[in-house]
Recover the amino acids of this structure.
């Protein structure tokens, strides 16, 4: 599963860093080397300078894309819940 987190100015100001921290925590601690549930390779994290979704819309940051699903006004909790659900943890 691929997670793209926008780190443009708006998204960073609205919490992209905490989303990244939450996803990395899941990757390292839940899907880590000792996990029997998932592996770190199951979760690919990519930071993007800008995903260009909020160029015309100012109130949709932060933006996260999980596979092909675009999530506007994302929160660390929402993204963590979606990943846990998709990884069937």
């Amino acid at each position: 599963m691929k997670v793209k987190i926008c780190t443009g100015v708006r998204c960073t100001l609205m919490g992209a860093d905490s989303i990244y921290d939450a996803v990395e925590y899941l990757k390292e601690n839940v899907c880590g080397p000792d996990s029997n549930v998932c592996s770190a390779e199951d979760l690919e994290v990519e930071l993007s300078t800008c995903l260009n979704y909020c160029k015309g819309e100012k109130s949709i940051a932060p933006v996260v894309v999980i596979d092909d699903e675009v999530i506007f006004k994302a929160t660390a909790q929402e993204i963590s819940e979606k990943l846990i659900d998709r990884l069937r943890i």
Summary: The domain at 2-87 is CATH 3.40.30 (Glutaredoxin).
